[in-house]
Amino acid sequence: MIEKENAVAELDRVLQCKGVDLIQFGPNDFAMSTGRPGEAMSPAVKEVERTVIRTCLAAGVAVRAEIASVEAAGYYLDLGVRHFSLYHDLQLMHSAWRDGGQRLREVIGDG
Length: 111
Description:
3 strands, about 55% helix
């Protein structure tokens, strides 16, 4: 995970480390660590993300993007990303609890 300014600054060195075969940029954590909480989608953070992606791919290291929808993959595919984490853990848990709870309410006649 590349989530701090110093990790971005040292990215070329990180990519030379033996065993590094995949990198993921963390826009939320990067924004927070640079004093811009809530600005993960800002133009400045997106530019850093693109720089990280380009640098990794140029070095032959794969990049993974965490996306909240299938539709979001297009942006990253255009940048050369081919590895994805679909949805966030909390979204998955929330959906499972919501859907499971609704089904259970239907079964017990309370929904």
